[in-house]
């Protein structure tokens, strides 16, 4: 059976839009139109609504065990005001991370938010997007005549929240008018409908995170299926957005060459031709820190994710905490093989980086 036929005959169960189980509001968030809109939505959905003094301090989540609390936190939405308007750097994909949301409802075992969000894995939407865009404007102006790129998916998967927040819409339309500003974000969700009709002027690059079937099957619960993501990528390209794919994390597993070759073959077979003219790839090998390993083993005790320090190379980190990456020989094999696959199947595409 050809790959295309196989994809057509496999009837995908559609990944539903995220509906939280609990919603918290900071009182001041209700002064903003976005806060009021989300409050009206949560009321209509008959969701339990609570008030919290700060989006940084939700301490009374239900759950008997740590694991239960974690699972509930991933279904809890907190609506608040972003106070820190100093943007973090976001190399190598962009100059800055633009903070519109924090946290994610999916359960990718390898996700670095496990550690960066620590004890606060609940989801946060910030209602003061005007302040965030004002800050972005300053960052853009400072760097003129250089172009400044903002990554909107550093701390969240914003597409998974767009039906509630509408924040990507605001950023995309804001960036459409910026001669020196560009937006980019990556997603594992296919819920792109709210983005298709927007004025973007080609200033926003939308990337989909894809991977070998083994990785998606074993480590990405709660995300849209591969075929849903590719179908959404086709619609994004049709809407005129620059498109890209992030293959991350690239995982060395038994049969990895077949796995990654099949991934590129499936992409080639299913992506509309006109979606391949201005295509970028970003390649990120799997890495973990000691802290991440401990947290992942607690939260996903049955995970098959290989995190054996003895099989890895230690890479010193900026803040003392180093990362375990693949040894050079394996990293080179992964990079060479996947790069060749990309250029064979998408000769017009560019590879932004391998890290
Ligand atoms: S979809 Fe992205 S942000 Fe969400 S859990 Fe998976 S890796 Fe993390």
Could you describe the 3D structure shown?
The structure is a single chain. The chain has an eight-stranded mixed beta sheet with strand order 4-5-8-9-10-11-12-15, covered by helices on one side. It is globular, with a radius of gyration of 20 Å. Helix 2 links the parallel strand 1 (22-25) and strand 2. Mean pLDDT is 93; it is low at 1-11. It contains twelve helices and 15 strands. The longest helix is centred in the C-terminal third of the chain and has 18 residues, at 328-345. With 355 residues, the protein is an alpha/beta fold. It has one domain (82-354): pyruvate-formate lyase- activating enzyme (Alpha-Beta Horseshoe), CATH 3.80.30. It has helices spanning 3-9, 33-44, 66-73, 113-116, 129-143, 162-165, 167-176, 213-219, 226-238, 256-270, 290-299, 328-345, and strands at 22-25, 49-51, 76-80, 89-90, 94-97, 101-102, 123-126, 148-151, 181-187, 204-210, 243-250, 279-285, 313-315, 323-325, 350-354. Bound molecules: iron/sulfur cluster. Iron/sulfur cluster (SF4) binds at residues 104, 106, 108, 111, 113, 157, 188, 223. Pfam families: SPL. This is Spore photoproduct lyase.
């Amino acid at each position: 059976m050809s790959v295309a036929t196989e994809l057509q005959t496999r009837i995908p169960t559609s990944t539903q839009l995220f509906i939280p189980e609990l919603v918290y509001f900071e009182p001041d968030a209700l002064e903003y139109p976005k806060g009021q809109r989300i409050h009206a939505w949560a009321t209509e959905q008959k969701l339990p609504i609570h008030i919290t003094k700060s989006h940084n301090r939700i301490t009374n989540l239900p759950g008997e065990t740590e694991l239960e609390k974690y699972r509930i936190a991933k279904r809890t939405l907190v609506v608040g005001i972003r106070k820190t308007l100093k943007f973090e750097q976001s190399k190598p994909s962009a100059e800055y991370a633009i903070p519109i949301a924090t946290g994610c409802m999916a359960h990718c075992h390898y996700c670095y938010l496990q550690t960066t969000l620590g004890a606060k894995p609940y989801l946060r939407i910030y209602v003061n997007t005007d302040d965030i865009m004002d800050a972005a404007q300053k960052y853009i102006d400072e760097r003129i005549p250089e172009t400044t790129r903002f990554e909107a998916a550093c701390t969240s998967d914003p597409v998974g929240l767009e039906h509630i927040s509408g924040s990507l819409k605001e950023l995309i339309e804001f960036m459409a008018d910026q001669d020196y500003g560009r937006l980019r974000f990556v997603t594992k969700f296919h819920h792109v409908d709210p983005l298709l009709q927007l004025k973007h002027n080609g200033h926003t690059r939308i990337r989909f995170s894809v991977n070998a079937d083994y990785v998606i099957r074993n480590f990405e619960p709660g995300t849209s299926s591969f075929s849903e993501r590719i179908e959404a990528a086709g619609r994004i390209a049709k809407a005129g957005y620059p498109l890209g794919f992030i293959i991350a994390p690239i995982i060395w597993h038994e049969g990895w060459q077949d796995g990654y070759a099949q991934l590129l073959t499936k992409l080639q077979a299913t992506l509309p031709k006109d979606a391949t003219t201005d295509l970028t790839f970003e390649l990120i090998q799997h890495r973990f820190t000691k802290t991440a390993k401990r947290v992942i083993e607690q939260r996903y005790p049955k995970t098959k994710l290989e995190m054996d320090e003895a099989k890895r190379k230690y890479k010193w980190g900026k803040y003392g905490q180093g990362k375990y990456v693949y040894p050079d020989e394996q990293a080179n094999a992964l990079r060479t093989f996947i790069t060749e696959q990309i250029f064979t199947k998408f000769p017009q595409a560019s590879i932004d980086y391998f890290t």
